Amino acid sequence: MRILVTGGAGFIGSALVRRLVLDQVAEAVLVVDKLTYAGERRSLRDCEGKPGFGFLQADIADAEAMAKAMADFRPDAVMHLAAESHVDRSIAGAAPFVQTNLVGTFVLLEAARAYWLGLEGAAKENFRFLHISTDEVFGSLGATGYFTETTPYSPRSPYSATKAGSDHLVAAWHETYGLPTLMTNCSNNYGPFHFPEKLIPLTILNALEGKPLPVYGKGENVRDWLFVDDHVTALIAVLQRGKPGQTYNVGGNSERRNIEVVEAICDTLDRLRPDAAGPRRRLISFVTDRPGHDARYAIDASKLKAELGWEPSETFATGLEKTIAWYLENDWWWQPLRERVYSGERLGLLPAK
Ligand code: NAD
């Protein structure tokens, strides 16, 4: 398969591209990425120069560039991950979220539709457009219950509102124009190459450096955590075997309160790299809660298991240990990014998804 991956220099996109290229899942991969502050070409270091790997720096909202990318690369599938993805940034300024997540997805859909209409026979029938989205479109849960594929949308942040809008566009392009789309809504990811403004990497790196570990409110908000490589496996299964027009929820069966996540990181680091100044839980610092902070997200991923046989292979404990070990061994990647994150903090942005 020839696969065009948007947002392939981001956290999840780069994990996907490394799998597609290094495990030779795809015959050719073209990454289309604008390289915003969140895009890191160095995350694709191991793919550079490999047969079939290509990189195009372009904005998905650039209609001409997208039409040319489709015509030149001639993909069998598009996997669409490009997005503005950080909730706190969306609260500070929603314009890039509307532009990329809504306008960009619209432009990409139109480019894909025009290209798909020009295909014939099996190539047209087998073409797929997989849109990668979030469980945040469903809003906030109470103490019980799970998001399923039929949960009504109720986005509450500018980020989730623009992702919800992009999901609706994708569904409409299937219903109205017959474009063979697929969609996934996934819970919080974590793992290697995660930009250090997000809760888990920020906590790991601050804890390593003896800096305060900011936790919103009392740390009671619950998220379902999925190791990024498990998400990648799910995306490939949906692309290869999912039914056009369908949506699949992807989750980790790993609900944790934010404070539990931060404490687990402190305890693991204390074990792997003891701090002479004492246990790292001393660094935890509770900060004013995010406005409209959703209380709980939890995913029911039983459809993906029943139809495509997918289940996460990592528990939160094993995934977190792998993630921390990776950050300890790969400061070449995160060290240059730390200054950017602290610039973000000076703008009044706080860490966490
Ligand atoms: P990320 O912020 O790490 O990466 C986004 C990538 O998109 C970056 O490489 C960036 O340069 C690129 N990009 C942004 N605007 C662009 C534009 N206009 N044109 C081209 N490229 C552009 O995001 P991520 O965490 O890897 O998330 C990827 C996708 O998965 C997003 O659509 C996100 O909504 C979704 N998602 C993320 C999570 C999570 O926990 N991270 C969970 C569920 C779903």
TrEMBL record:
Enzyme type, top EC level: lyase
Keyword NAD: yes
Stored NCBIfam families: dTDP_gluc_dehyt
Sections of the chain in a coiled coil: none
Cofactor(s) the protein needs: NAD(+)
Classification via InterPro entries: dTDP_Gluc_deHydtase (IPR005888), NAD(P)-bd_dom (IPR016040), NAD(P)-bd_dom_sf (IPR036291)
Keyword Lyase set for record: yes
Pfam short name (any one): GDP_Man_Dehyd
EC annotation from Swiss-Prot or TrEMBL: 4.2.1.46
Gene3D superfamilies: NAD(P)-binding Rossmann-like Domain (3.40.50.720), UDP-galactose 4-epimerase, domain 1 (3.90.25.10)
Catalytic activity, reaction form: dTDP-alpha-D-glucose = dTDP-4-dehydro-6-deoxy-alpha-D-glucose + H2O
One GO MF term attached to the UniProt entry: dTDP-glucose 4,6-dehydratase activity
GO biological process: nucleotide-sugar metabolic process
Family statement: Belongs to the NAD(P)-dependent epimerase/dehydratase family. dTDP-glucose dehydratase subfamily.
Segments forming domain NAD(P)-binding: 4-323
Alphabetized UniProt keyword annotations: Lyase, NAD
Protein name as catalogued: dTDP-glucose 4,6-dehydratase
